[in-house]
Amino acid sequence: MAGLEVLYTHVAGSISCPQDAVLCFVHWEMITSGYRCLGSGDEPRSTDKKSELLPADWNSNKELYTLRYQGKDSNAQLLLKAIAVDSTLIFNVMTSSTQQVSDLTVNISDHVDADQLHTFDSVFKDVASLSEKVKTQLLPSQGRPVGRKAEKKSQRDKEEEERQRGEDSDPLRIPPRHPRHNTPPHWPPGPMVPPFAAGGADLDPFGSRGGGGMIVDPLRSGYPRSGFDPSSGIPDILPPGAVPPGARFDPFGPVGRHRPGPDPDHMPPPGYDDMFM
Predict the structure, then answer these.
(1) What tens digit of pLDDT does each residue of 16-67 get?
(2) Which end of the chain is flanked by fewer CB atoms within 10 Å, N or C?
(3) With the C-alpha atoms ordered 105, 110, 114, 120, is the resulting torsion angle positive or negative?
């Protein structure tokens, strides 16, 4: 953690409470993230200048710390405030250009030993965890300053994203009916072969491609026919012409005038036990 010891040693004479030590650590994280301190207070002053050091009156108020920062190589400005509440220190950082606010609550005793305030090697505890919290919660990546080239690239990416979003949300924009590079599938003529035979009867119900089809027609089933023509009528059942020539016809009873009676080998009705029947 290069630089933290130099910073802490420089302000050690003015550190009088644990929250001073926590604020010193957060200030160091701001510096290593690319910011420089302009001064204390909410409003700019004529004496403001970018510096890695803390201003002379940085901890004059032990209940409310207020510091202003600006990017080392950019105009991005942040306003940092820390409020002491019981055993915690609540940080708020506001980006001046966007008014975006981030916050972090630090339990002081988890990261500072109050009995070792003037011994740098012992004053801080679990610095890795505190550093991670500051970077991810208090200084989100979109708020960190970047170089000019990165800023230009980011601006181009943002404009391109807004343009694409505008096209997608345009209610008058008509999307293409078919994808440009896709063509409809080609279905080969003739009977289907596995594994595409499944469902083929649904696509060809009459079996015009050589398959069986899905419509059952006794007169077109492929089995040998008896020569029966339903269009000529069925005696005692249908008059001639009741069935149009060539129409599908499902027989609903025995064909012919004389209907055969029961066969002696037919099984008797259920529960009938008369052996002399």
Answers:
(1) 999 999 999 999 999 999 999 999 998 888 888 899 999 999 999 999 999 9
(2) C
(3) negative
pLDDT tens digit string along 83-109?
999 999 999 999 888 888 999 999 999
**DSSP string for 8-75:** HHHHGGG--SHHHHHHHHHHHHHHHTTEEEEEESSS--TT---BSSPPTTTTS-SSEEEEEEEESSS-
The CATH number of the structural domain formed by 4-143 is 3.40.1000.30
Q: Measuring CA to CA, which residue among 223, 239, 221 is closest to residue 231?
A: 239
In total, the chain counts a number of residues equal to: 277
CA distance 38 to 96: 14
Closest by CA position to 24, among listed 123, 93, 95, 110:
123
Distance in angstroms (rounded) separating the CA atoms of residues 83 and 204: 78
* DSSP H helical ranges for 80-147: 108-111, 120-123, 127-133
Quick one: tokens of 67? 């510091």
Q: Where are the domains of the chain?
A: 4-143
